[in-house]
Amino acid sequence: MSANAPITMSVLSARDYKSDYKPVWCPGCGDFGVLNALTKALAALKLAPEQVALIAGIGCSSRIAAYTRVYGFHGVHGRVLPLATGLAVARPDLTVLAAGGDGDGFSIGGNHFIHACRRNANLTYLVMDNAVYGMTKGQASPTTECDWTGSELTPEGPHQAPFKPLEIALAAGAPFIARAFANDPNGLARLICEAIEFPGFAMIQILSPCITYRPEQMGYKKRVHEDFQPTDRLDQAWQALVADDGFTTGLLWRAERPAYRPHAADGDPASLINSFRVE
Question: What is the 8-class DSSP label of residue 145?
Fold first, then answer.
């Protein structure tokens, strides 16, 4: 049996969802915590590995597909969401997951991200955000702070406003938006469970420290605080984001609306428009 071939057992533990391939992430990388959280969530939901598909992009974080025993597909840079959306629509019987990093998802994949939010196919998108291009030697990424001077490639800082994933997701119409911390695998596992069970597009921004190019991020543990309170009111969600310091975790927004299914009438257009209306 190959190292990441599906297995079927009567009782599954988190370990059963991990492949025999050893992660090549740097020791201390936050992505280890994401892998642990994901496998815990799959075990908690008692999903058979052959019922799960994990679509990955390009970058350090996207290697995660090879480290699991579920069906996986390693796509090209920035195209994880079109691939995952197509699979979710064509195979609604599968649990479809998409995984990537901030560069993959918000730079070359930024336009796909916006339209995946509004399209609302039934899938879960895990974005491991370390605010740097870790695989290609530490360039500033879309979410890098404008005054970060920790890279020889941008010694004076990128001088560009960082991309705001949660704000963009909310404006684009994503019905499930959350943020988590990679070094809290139990809390992240609970969020992943909720995201998978949500009937639509669920996005989790995961603060995942890069110990090699952003060693200062190891201090995130003292800065994260779980203060988001889930709401389905746009005014409350925007107020929470205005007050956000970038380290608030938890479920921010959950709004029930029909998931995208082509050639099917999933409710009238008026009800869809009303789901975005500020009360």
Answer: -
The pLDDT of residue 10 is 60
* Cα dist from 278 to 61, 109, 236, 241, whole Å: 36, 29, 9, 16
Is the pLDDT confidence value at 1 over 70?
no
Instruction: Determine the Cα angle at 26 with ends 25 and 32, to 5°.
Output: 55
Cβ of 23: how many Cβ atoms within 10 Å? 17
- ∠ CA 163-234-254, nearest 5°, is 85
Determine the Cα–Cα distance for residues 75 and 53; give it in Å rounded to an integer: 13
* DSSP summary character for residue 246: S
What is the SS3 assignment for 264? Answer: coil
Backbone conformation region of residue 154, classed left if phi is above 0, alpha if psi is from -120 to 50, else beta: beta
Q: Is the dihedral of CA 239, 130, 39, 1 positive or negative?
A: positive
Look at the chain and count its residues.
279
Distance CA 241, CA 260 (A): 27
Q: What is the CATH number of domain 25-274?
A: 3.40.50.970
Summarize pLDDT for 142-178 with one digit per residue, the tens.
988 888 887 777 888 888 899 999 999 999 999 999 9
Of 45 and 139, the one with more pLDDT: 45
Q: Residue 2's pLDDT is what? A: 47
